[in-house]
Amino acid sequence: xxxxxxxxxxxxxxxxxxxxxxxxxxxxxxxxxxxxxxxxxxxxxxxxxxxxxxxxxxxxxxxxxxxxxxxxxxxxxxxxxxxxxxxxxxxxxxxxxxxxxxxxxxxxxxxxxxxxxxxxxxxxxxxxxxxxxxxxxxxxxxxxxxxxxxxxxxxxxxxx
Length: 160
Ligand SMILES: N[C@@H](CCC(=O)N[C@@H](CS)C(=O)NCC(=O)O)C(=O)O
What we know:
alpha+beta, Glutaredoxin, 51% helix
């Protein structure tokens, strides 16, 4: 049995960054994808009633940010030193802001409100978010958001 088991839904959502990190690290892991029927009885057994959860050597971890930071440290993807780690972590938090805008828009039911949110996203939020990301990337040398070092990404094309 692989030493790492990731449990999430069969979608990208909050699981995909974790899957990508495990792919980059070439880690042996079980990609346990649940449908909502399978999830219902499991919900109360999880630490915070949410997915993703990840089991590592029998230890159960919850919270996507925690799992991402754990894997970053475990597989040396966290950047160089404390400052390199903080630079990588800044981008994780920045991406969370982006996801939140999209999710809030996608799950808004009122069509007029959804339209307003989508327009604001396209006209204001996304350009500002991208400009800030670009500024940050240039500040760090133009290739990596943290530590400017080559990693073994060859052959990693993402997850299905
Ligand atoms: N703060 C948590 C939130 C996790 C979360 O919202 N998970 C959603 C899927 S993305 C979930 O488990 N939904 C099912 C439910 O709440 O029953 C994290 O970042 O891991």
